Amino acid sequence: MYKIKIHFSSPEKETAYRAHYLQADKNLARVIILVICAASILFISSDIIFTASSADLLPLIGIRLSFAAWSVAVIFLLKNVDSSKKFDILSSAWLISLIGFMTFIYSTRPVDNLNNTLTSCLIVFLFYVLFPARLTVQIMCALVLSLANVIHVFIYKDLLQLNAINTILTSYLVFNILGTFIAVRWHKSRRREFNTHLKSISMRKKLEELAFTDDLTGLANRRSCFKKMVSEYHRHERYDNDLSIMIIDIDFFKKVNDNYGHDQGDKVLKVVAKLLKKSCRSDDTAGRLGGEEFTILLPETKLFDAHQLAERLRERCAELSIPTNDKEIKITISIGVAQANDSDTCAKDMMKRADIALYKAKDAGRNCVVDG
Length: 372
What we know:
With 372 residues, the protein is α+β, with helices and mostly antiparallel strands. The protein has 13 helices and seven strands.
């Protein structure tokens, strides 16, 4: 079975992955920070229990309140974070401050207090299980906090029984191993989910292409052409910009199919489509209306300029020699051109005039351009 790595091999994909989950990570981090912030204030009662004098109590309360204020600031700062890099920096800064805070609090407690050890282990486990940082950050923070507390145990090991030492060390070991296992599984699971998300996007794009693209030529299909034409016509009405359209028909195309076969006919359609697409600007739309009939929608184009382009297309098509098995196919095209004007009530009126112009071009002997 294919195993997903903890980090994608492609930096671009890793960046996209982090960006995709950024909002969810921000929300989760803010909730966790808020909970720990509230807990740090509530545990002031434990400072009173473990602190004998007010001189020792006030600094502890001050540190707790400072940490709480910093946590609240991070919560608000996270709201405006707009990149994974900034999220990593801010969340790592808070995690480091939490480690320092927890280590200091731990040092003020009796070394044999197992409740304090359990709280520390739960924080370690939280690094792995809930906090949405990079896996390396999760592991480093958990290990640093564990190591700091283990060192504290060894400093005062003479005050502890062997069973207590073993219990503390075993607790940290178990929570780190279990936490690492869960964190790795979580990161892999989320990357599988992201891969599925990318596949669904790719599939959706392919379906959209199938819905709006002609399979044979790769141009926009009839449905897509009409949709684009209506959109551009509405823009023409709104801003009074120029808009032209040409309808192109391959002359005597039935003879090509009859004389050379449908495979060669398809080849001719592909060659013509390639020529049309190559002649278009980035804002133009070339499409196949069906059979041997094509269209080009020309935004910001006057009738004169559209006519000139149509003449160039006609000349280039006449110069084409499409090779077959034993001879070359020569073709010509007829083109009807029209520009949107005040007499049109909708996009279809403009297209109808171009279509009528095309029939006039055919009646005039084909291989010519007629304006509508």
